[in-house]
Every structure is written in C-alpha cells, then in structure tokens.
Amino acid sequence: MWTFGVAAALLLAAAALAFVALRQNANLFYTPETLAENGVPAAGKEVKVGGWVEPGSLTYPGDGSEMVFSIIDNSPASITVSFTGIAPDLFREGQGVVAIGTFDADGRFTARQVLAKHDENYQPRELRPLGAGPDQNAS
C-alpha cells in the first residue's frame, strides 16, 4: 500500500510540474480581436501577433528596406506592423502571417521576424511554370 501511495504522489508531482512548465512556455500569438478586447501587452515585451495580411495594406515607406502592413482577423480590429528586413518568399497580401516583435509605448508594433504560412497547395516557385501540382488555373 505504501508503494502505491508513493507512486501516486510522484505521478501527481510529475504531472503538476509538466503542466506548469508547458504553461510557461506556451507560444501562442495575439490576434487583432484579442488585443482589442484585452489591450496591448506591456511596452518592450516580446510577443507574437498573427492573422492575415490585409489586402491593400502593404507599403514600403522610405528607402524600401522597411515595410508596413496590417494584420486582420474576422473582427473589425487590425494591427499595424512595421518590419525592416527580408520578408519570407511566401509573404503576400491575404496570406496568413505571424510577426514576432514588441509594442512601443504608443502601441505601435515593430517586428523583428515575420513568418508566413502557406496553404496545403504549396509548391516550390521553380515548379510553378511547369504546371506541376494542384491549383494551376483550375476552373
């Protein structure tokens, strides 16, 4: 009976430790709707924001190394993102995106990294002219 009790206590302790560790390391992203409801995280805290790149929002102010775009979801809210660097090949308007960066004191989001999500019909750029893969001007 003692062995069973010690084993149960150790199992509960391991489960509690795993739960706490996983909860602290969860890498979820904020959507525009979540930020509109709960407010912007503290200035300088690194977070992830995600949604879709709003069509017509992508601009390149200045010398072209910086890009500014809006992230939207299924709500009226949006997040304006400023990013300096090379965007992923799959990055484009209307596409899913996750940006990693910080909000400043004025609520502006500056990304240090942009991740683009592709759909299940992705094919390498090199194969597109060959007509390989799905979704080639399908009617």
UniProtKB/TrEMBL annotation:
Protein topology in the membrane: Single-pass type II membrane protein
Its keywords, alphabetically, are: Cell membrane, Cytochrome c-type biogenesis, Heme, Iron, Membrane, Metal-binding, Signal, Signal-anchor, Transmembrane, Transmembrane helix
Q: Does the keyword Metal-binding apply?
A: yes
UniProt-annotated binding residues for heme:
118, 122
Give start-end of the signal peptide: 1-18
Which GO cellular component terms, listed alphabetically, does the Swiss-Prot or TrEMBL entry include? plasma membrane
Record-level Gene Ontology MF annotations:
heme binding; metal ion binding
Q: Which SUPFAM superfamilies match?
A: Heme chaperone CcmE (SSF82093)
User: Which residues span the membrane?
Assistant: none
Could you tell me which residue ranges are on the Cytoplasmic side of the membrane? 1
| Pfam families in alphabetical order | CcmE
Per the UniProt topology annotation, the Extracellular ranges are 22-139
- InterPro entries recorded: CcmE, CcmE-like_sf, NA-bd_OB-fold
Q: Where in the cell is it found?
A: Cell membrane; Membrane
Source organism, top-level taxon: Bacteria
* Listed GO biological process terms: cytochrome complex assembly; protein-heme linkage
Task: Give positions of region: Disordered.
Answer: 120-139
Gene3D superfamilies from the entry?
Answer: Nucleic acid-binding proteins
Main function: Heme chaperone required for the biogenesis of c-type cytochromes. Transiently binds heme delivered by CcmC and transfers the heme to apo-cytochromes in a process facilitated by CcmF and CcmH.
Q: Can you tell me which family this protein belongs to?
A: Belongs to the CcmE/CycJ family.
Q: What is this protein called?
A: Cytochrome c-type biogenesis protein CcmE
